[in-house]
Amino acid sequence: MTEAGTSLASTPDGPSSNVVLEVQSVDAGYGAHTVLRDVSLDVREGEIISLLGHNGAGKSTLLRAIAGAIGVAKGDIRFRGESQIGHGSARVAQDGIALVPQGRGIFPTLTIGENLQLGAGVARRVTDRPTVTQDFVLDLFPALARRLHEEAGTLSGGQQQMVAIGTALMASPRFLLLDEPSTGLAPVLVQTMLDQIQAVHRELEIGVLIVEQNIHEALRVSDRAYVLRLGEIVREGPAATLLDDPDIWGLF
Ligand SMILES: Nc1ncnc2c1ncn2[C@@H]1O[C@H](COP(=O)(O)OP(=O)(O)OP(=O)(O)O)[C@@H](O)[C@H]1O
């Protein structure tokens, strides 16, 4: 149910040029509870895409489906042209898709360094991508360098988020799925976090699909966005267009 005037076909190169990730008419959910209905979305090379929507719209569920953490009842999810259906989360991670879940997903009793090395363990099983080093992560998040040997659970919310993203980067991903990376951050830090994500995207040339509640901030760093409502995509378009559209706020 995409609104007219925002379709992908309006791009000069057409809908399928340089598509890295493609979600095609997906239904997914939990057992008998269908959450996502006929969801389609794509991310092209060099893009940051925002996935927006109110609580319970199905944003996390879509990220989990892409990451292979839950099954898909209908449709297809293709990464670099290959269907991911049935691959499971370990294989999807090795193919280069890293999920940073909501709530950070770090190991609080391991040190920051040990958490980062868990990501490096995934990277050791892949040979076709340049390795993201610990130095890169510590340059990106200097606050972690100073506390490398401390337990991750002792860090502030924002620093734990850095550990989660850093661990995902250490897996040398091709694509990052970020579920509300600014959760729990002070407003002044939200902008910094999103700027750092944009820097990572540019420097490592990896695709990013980001779920965010901070709509303005998310659109500021994104190329395009999709809006999910009750499990369906109800709006999509260039970030700049959505930012200027007063009707967008009625969708939340
Ligand atoms: N593990 C689960 N088992 C069963 N139902 C779930 C599970 N996780 C989420 N749901 C349900 O799926 C629906 C979509 O939830 P989801 O977390 O994907 O939404 P969301 O858009 O990410 O919301 P939020 O912004 O609150 O995280 C909700 O009705 C939720 O109750």
3D architecture notes:
With 252 residues, the chain is of the alpha/beta class. The chain has one domain: Rossmann fold. Helices cover 33% and strands 25% of the residues. The chain has a 6-stranded mixed β-sheet with strand order 6-7-8-3-9-10, sandwiched between helices. A 4-stranded antiparallel β-sheet has the order 2-1-4-5, covered by helices on one side. Strand 9 and strand 10 form a beta hairpin. Helix 3 packs parallel to helix 6. The longest helix has 18 residues. The chain is globular, with a radius of gyration of 18 Å. Adenosine-5'-triphosphate binds next to strand 2 and helix 1. The site of adenosine-5'-triphosphate has 12 residues, from strand 2 and helix 1. It comes from Nocardioides marinisabuli.
Strand content: 25-35%
Strand order of the largest sheet: 6-7-8-3-9-10
- Counting helices, strands and paired strands, the structural category is alpha/beta
Distance between the termini: 16 Å
Total helical elements: 9
Main sheet: strands, sense, barrel: 6 strands, mixed
Shape: globular
**The CATH superfamily title:** P-loop containing nucleotide triphosphate hydrolases
* Element-by-element helix/strand order: EEEHEEHEHHHHEHEHEEH
How many domains, as an integer? Answer: 1
Radius of gyration: 18 Å
Organism: Nocardioides marinisabuli
Domain ABC transporter: 21-252
GO molecular function: ATP binding; ATP hydrolysis activity; branched-chain amino acid transmembrane transporter activity
Protein name: Branched-chain amino acid transport system ATP-binding protein
